[in-house]
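Let us practice reading a record.
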Amino acid sequence: MDHPCSSNIMTQVKNQLEQLNSSANALFVAYYTAQGEPFTKYVDRLCHKDLMSFPPFHANSTEKDKLVELYRVMAYFHLSLDDVMQCQKTLNPKDQNLHSKLNSTADTVRGILSNVLCRLCDTYNVRLTDVINGLNTSEQYVFQKKRLGCQLLFKYKQVIADLAQSF
């Protein structure tokens, strides 16, 4: 049986992107604060490096192409965020503020992925089967895990602002 997407699915995607954009800075601050020194003292030096690369997104594309690219960006971020969340369960197990923000962000990202897939399948008959890899810090030392998470969330703040404006 066919289950078409909600008629307002693009409004939902836009609202979810705006929600992520409005909470991105608070997540970033909660993250680097939870890491302690030297992150709180040298956040610019440790986190603002533009080494993190998300999949590309072109705001002036067709809706279909924008949705495919949005899906790839969000899938990459979701996998990377999951890695960060696993690390933080070990490194900062008692920081409920951080875990709450990470979980809320992950829930919204999952919602976007679901909505985008529905729209692509329903409207454009596109089924994405790309293999997307996220950040993997399993082999890293603790400091490097913290730093990569910080860089990811800093870059995410920039990327999500662009995405929110594009829909």
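A brief commentary: The mean pLDDT is 92.
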